[in-house]
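RETRY 2/3 - previous attempt timed out on the joint model. Re-submitting the same 724-residue input unchanged.
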Amino acid sequence: MNKSSGLSDWVLFFGFAAVVLTMPLWLAPFGAAYPDLMQKFAIFGVFAIGFNILFGLTGYLSFGHAAFLGAGSYAAIWSYKALTMNVVPAILFAVIVAGIFAFLIGYVSLRRSGIYFSILTLAFAQMSYNLAYSVLTPITNGETGLQLTLADPRVLDAMVGIEATSSLPLPNFFGIITTGIPGFYFCATVLIIAFFISLRIARSPFGMMLKAIKSNQTRMAYTGFNTRPYLLWAFVISGMYAGLAGGLMAVTDPLAGAERMQWTASGEVVLMTILGGAGTLVGPVIGAAVIKYFENIFSAFNKAELQQIFSALPDGLENIVVSVASMFVGKGWHLTLGLLFMIVVIFLPGGIMEGVRRIGRLMGIGKKPETQPVSVANSQQGQANG
Amino acid sequence: MDAILLQILNGLDKGAAYALIALGLTLVFGTLGVVNFAHGAIFMLGAFCAVTFNRVLSMSTKVRDESVTLFEAFKEVPILTTKFPVVGPVILDYAVPLSLLVAIPIMLLLGFAMERGLIRHFYKRPHADQILVTFGLAIILQEIIKHYFGANPIPQSAPAAFAGSANISAYFGVGENIIYPWWRLIYLAFSVFIISCVFAFLHLTTFGMVVRAGMQDREMVGMLGINIQRRFSIVFGMAAVVAGMAGVMYTPILPPDYHMGMDFLVLSFVVVVVGGMGSLGGAVAAGFLLGILQSFASMNEVKSIIPGIDQIIIYLVAVVVLLVLPRGLLGRKGVMED
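RETRY 2/3 succeeded.
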């Protein structure tokens, strides 16, 4: 890293924080400035940042990260039920449980690499999902999902004299109810902290080690490094991020269901990271936001609205266009998602960040070509700078 | 004794489906070196070929219902039965096996189109990219099916002659009272036949010999002046046909819905890994083995000792096998070692 990277990192960090915190302002014209959606941006941003620490830095593709998210959610709800409705213990609890869980799974899975690693993580995640649905029902409440009840003990709350009234208590941050806009600011703050930590990790010797593992693990081993502890730590940190995201989900909505652990959920975070740009710092957050935004927009459309949009076309043509377009919206949103997935992987393996860089290079704003020759080593560095 | 035999039989038909899908996966992986996450979707498309074929056959017209005399009543009667009163009902009855005839060419074409149009561009890309792009393709295929056929399972019936159950004990003289559905026996026999065909094709024909040589060392085969790429494309089509046929024949056992492909794919991948990447025999053996294990694990006696074991047995076995035998049961050295 060159000397200026310290300064530019701070610029990047403060820019990121400013953009995240002003979301309610600049998202308003897009019709996305309501708390529910913005909370999702922040939560999935955290999830994708965490996934990126593993996949982006080390190149190990985990297909089972949703298991940690689910574990975090369950842990947070249990903290509500047993201890207090304050979100801080819930989140701590979520991160710790997910971390332990990730350590156990990572210890076994990381003995293999490549596709074997992907399959092993997938197997573990599916195992957790199946167990959460069936045998672990006393802990997870099976299909119904884990919910709060009035009869929960809430030991700490009872000690300070907060009694449950006739309605269910809401999660709070020292008295501030964390739903709606305050909930968004809470998630946004966590996202910014999570981003800062990932920035420090990427710039640290540890981060360099992870990138070295990605570019050539065998050489690392020959140089005398035992790569497994580094990988395991990356896996655990990444799992803790997922647990944090799961905890945040419980913060904004005190419910947890097993479907959060399903492998399609793992696939979603992979897509977010890839779409934004794996290995870049802000890419995963952008990917998460884009996917959640489009999910929201596309799944809200229905046929009548489409007919209105295309009403300018001649009748016969209109019907054809509407029937084709209706495949992609509403319940067919996943079709759009799949298409997006393929297009990104085929044409833009570097994701949105790569696209931005290419456009920048075309416009001549990017760094001069002679200082940034297109080689593997430098494009990696370039990604880290992005 | 009877219970054990019955569980083995129960496991075999599920294992047969795993084996057929895993066989295709391994073929594609062993030849083209591509990890195909869309293979389950092909299985699913095969099943929906049967559904479509059945729908086309049973297209109906309104005919006056003679049995109602009080008023003018109409009933729906398939055109096939009115036009061909003798053959029509038989064809309708055998719609599922007959749809194999339609499914085979469709799957072959689909396989070629997939390989030439998409997979070909991913030979040199990392495995992660291959997984991701085929994963995207699988989502697209399954969403298209969902759009046209809806989200609910569509039950298909086996031919009336095979709809009942067979008394295995009476026919084969084993055990005392083993009752087993006919169609599952047929499925088992069918999959054994298909698997033997694939092995015979690979081991007894010149084409198969070249393909096997290419799996060992494709550069050498290429240097001998053989267009190995072209043959591998054909193998991809073959794998698609195998998966499609497996799907068609499975419809009477499991009503097809749009996500059946994904459900089977995840398990089939585990099967491939347990059997050993790139080992055809391993994939088949592991498919049947895991099917049987799963069926034993879902016995009540076993479940009462270890609750929930039926849900996780396959994954558990996969984890243990990978940790003890990193190459899988019959994996070859040098295949996907990195």
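Chain B is about 70% helix and 5% strand. Closing ticket.
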